[in-house]
Amino acid sequence: MSTLAYLRSFFMDKDVASVTPTSRFCVRTVCKPIDFSKDLNIVEYGAGTGVFSKYLLKHMSLDSQLYLFETNDILYKKLLEIKNQRVHFYRKSVEHVTEILGEELLGKVDYIISGIPFSFLDEAQKESILNQSKQILKEGGGFLAYQTSGHLKDPLEKTFGNVETEWEWRNIPPMTVYRAFK
């Protein structure tokens, strides 16, 4: 059912960049740096149908919190099927993430996982989202993204001053995985 939701969304929404959910291999590669032994605040941009969300909830402590952003109606409805008190849903764009999450989370987010297609954004939008992401992350917090190409490396380097990349071939399509830390 998830793949069908993605296919429908792909053809109906210009902001959906994939025809299939992220593979378990890509999920594990993206989440590799996360220390699940601690209580965490994790924000997910473009949560889709919840592939990452379900993985995170299985591994997160009971006192961790997960903040999910998804703008696509079809994917958001699937996402709402996740019933867990640690999850907070936002049917809003991350273009105003600092305002949406508010002062209480500013500088307190451990990780941001992003699957939004940054290549679809203009430079000003991309820069704004990355700068806001840096603001909400705590010192040492990580911005973990997966994209279909290497286009995000320079903007991440500019914003965070560091970036690591890794390819995950066991995904359709293959993904570049990015890691940048505050």
TrEMBL record:
UniProt GO molecular function: methyltransferase activity
Gene Ontology annotations of biological process type: methylation
Domain of life of the native organism: Bacteria
Gene3D superfamilies given in the database record: Vaccinia Virus protein VP39 (3.40.50.150)
CDD domains membership: AdoMet_MTases (cd02440)
Keyword annotations from UniProtKB, A to Z: Methyltransferase, Transferase
UniProt name for this protein: Methyltransferase
Lineage: Bacteria, Pseudomonadati, Balneolota, Balneolia, Balneolales
